């Protein structure tokens, strides 16, 4: 009888422990699924496409058809084999992949622009390392046929001006079909893609080629925006483009002294805002910036590079938006820009991604709760109400 009773107690204890283990597995799995998958849907689901005011002559359906829905992000900095630790790669690249794929699924943009520094070590990576980085990029930033991906070159992709070579530039162009001075037109909207690293202005071969393409493109756009004038022979043989002021896309921001005038929760930290920028390193030179504004008279400039947000107004009328980094490695609160653009107007809205600190807090809280549950289950931690009950019993006994 005693043996049978002992066996029954052991079986009950075993069932109790197995049931507790199953509950722990469910708890841990739920936390992992939420922090690694669901949180991206919860956060990005709150983002909405901004509305563009249409003309009185256009109906709602016509207006909707004429609006181009674009996502703009910057500075993904995929880590390379030299400086990239495997754990850092795993964590940050998973964050960017989930953010990008969730945004595509929920928001369904027609076009996505990445404003340079796609890779962190493109400026010195070997052919084999470059091929591996490109493979990982294509996996992370895969996209459906209904979406177009356009990538701009940055200094970490081909090196700063003194590191830039024809080989590195061609290597990037071959993968991303990018050329400085390239124009793409979608729904009557002109986008000018600029290799801002080549805007040094020192007459280097790559710089001369890039500037010549930009000048030719500027001429074509200016001719397209002019009214037909048969006496103007300079535009007689020029291919006509949509008469829409272009949107300028580049990695370096146009010249500004610092980020002192920038505001917002994702602007530069207070201790960095008053640090003066170096021309052709942090921002384009004053001369190069003025050239681009003269050549194209853009209605909007979008740039990256600083990893922080900023909005500035050039010549009192041309807005420039510096897009923050898309990666947790560069900031706690990454984001991207959602743009509703027409040939004559645009409206922008920022969409924040999950904060890394909040995900970390959820894991820490769950970990602490897990420890408490385990200690309580094995009676290594006396529950507060048991402790209070014992005190009351002792008091009554006295």
TrEMBL record:
It is found in: Endoplasmic reticulum-Golgi intermediate compartment membrane. Its main location: endoplasmic reticulum. The chain crosses the membrane at residues 20-43, 360-381. The keyword Lyase does not apply. Its cofactor is Mn(2+). Belongs to the metallophosphoesterase superfamily. MPPE1 family. Metallophosphoesterase that catalyzes the removal of a side-chain ethanolamine-phosphate (EtNP) from the second mannose of the GPI-anchor protein intermediate. Participates in the glycan remodeling steps of GPI-anchor maturation to allow an efficient transport of GPI-anchor proteins from the endoplasmic reticulum to the Golgi. This is Metallophosphoesterase 1. The lineage of its organism: Eukaryota, Metazoa, Chordata, Craniata, Vertebrata. The gene is Mppe1.
């Amino acid at each position: 009888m005693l043996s049978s009773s002992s066996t029954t107690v052991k079986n009950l204890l075993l069932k109790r422990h197995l049931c507790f283990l199953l509950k722990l597995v469910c708890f841990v799995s739920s936390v992992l699924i939420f922090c690694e998958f669901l949180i991206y849907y919860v956060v990005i689901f709150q983002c909405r496409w901004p509305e563009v005011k249409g003309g009185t002559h256009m109906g709602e359906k016509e207006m909707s058809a004429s609006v181009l829905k674009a996502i703009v992000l910057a500075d993904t900095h995929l880590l390379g084999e030299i400086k990239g630790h495997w754990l850092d790669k795993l964590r940050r690249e998973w964050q960017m992949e989930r953010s990008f794929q969730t945004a595509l699924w929920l928001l369904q943009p027609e076009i996505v622009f990445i404003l340079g520094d796609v890779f962190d070590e493109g400026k010195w990576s070997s052919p084999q390392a470059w091929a591996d980085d490109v493979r990982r990029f294509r996996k992370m930033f895969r996209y459906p046929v209904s979406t177009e991906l356009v990538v701009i070159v940055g200094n970490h992709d081909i090196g700063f001006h003194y590191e830039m070579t024809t080989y590195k530039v061609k290597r990037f162009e071959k993968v991303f079909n990018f050329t400085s001075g390239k124009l793409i037109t979608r729904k009557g909207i002109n986008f000018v893609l600029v290799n801002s690293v080549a805007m040094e202005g020192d007459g280097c071969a790559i710089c001369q080629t890039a500037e010549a393409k930009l000048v030719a493109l500027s001429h074509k756009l200016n001719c397209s925006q002019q009214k037909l004038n048969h006496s103007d022979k300079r535009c007689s043989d020029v291919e006509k483009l949509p008469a829409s002021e272009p949107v300028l896309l580049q990695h370096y921001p146009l010249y500004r002294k610092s980020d002192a005038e920038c505001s917002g929760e994702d602007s530069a930290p207070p201790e960095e805002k008053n640090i003066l920028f170096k021309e052709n390193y942090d921002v384009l030179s004053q001369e190069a910036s003025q050239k681009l504004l003269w050549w194209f008279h853009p209605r909007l400039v979008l740039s990256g590079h600083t990893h922080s947000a900023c909005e500035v107004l050039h010549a009192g009328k041309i807005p420039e938006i510096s897009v923050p980094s898309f990666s947790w490695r560069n900031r706690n609160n990454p984001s991207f820009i959602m743009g509703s653009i027409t040939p004559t107007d645009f409206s922008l809205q920022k969409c924040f991604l999950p904060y890394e600190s909040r995900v970390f807090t959820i894991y820490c809280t769950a970990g602490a709760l897990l420890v408490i549950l385990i200690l309580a289950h094995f009676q290594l931690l006396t529950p507060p109400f048991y402790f209070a009950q014992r005190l009351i019993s002792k008091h009554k006994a006295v």
